[in-house]
Amino acid sequence: MSTTDPTPHRRAARVSRATKETSIEVSVDLDGTGATDVSTGLPFFDHMLSQLGRHGGIDLTVAATGDLDVDAHHTVEDVGIALGGVFAEALGDKAGVRRFASISLPLDEALVDVAVDLSGRPFLAYGIEFAPDTPGLGTPPFDPQLAEEFWRAFVTAAAITLHVRLVTGRNTHHIVEASFKAAARTLRDAVRVEGGGIPSTKGTL
User: Fold this and answer.
1) Whole-prediction pTM value?
2) CA separation for the pair 128, 175 (Å, rounded)
3) Mean pLDDT (whole number) for 126-152
């Protein structure tokens, strides 16, 4: 069950989502200051979600519990689903938003390109690959390949187009963090209100 924030013109929403594998509560305020409160049981994933809020200028709270004793996949994917859905709800009809944004973001030796379109059409092009035996990050470990699963779930639920491409990089932490920071910055630019109409010749997104 989700509810839109009743404050006029405030693009905020929250959601509670429960399955046999996970229980998740998420809230976002797209017009916030980047304040975050995140707890998923995966410290590295918490760090990445906090980067998403901080660099996206989004007030973000995430409280998730899941079957981490089985695998982290369920928790990561379900957080992506919940966060994407609440993002779309908060965004509303997208009147006046910039819609398109892109960035090339460095983090030490890592460089990641990200582009976004608030298109209403879910699509993920993810050009970052890790070897299957790449060590996880944090304790319990976050498999870096799960970053792609998070973004796929997010863009599907949010109905946006997202392109993520690694230009160069060696350090796993740097690569994943650069991708989250880059996505945050592009989303921040794309949701910015700079006009009064729907930015599409179709009249809807």
Assistant:
1) 0.93
2) 8
3) 97
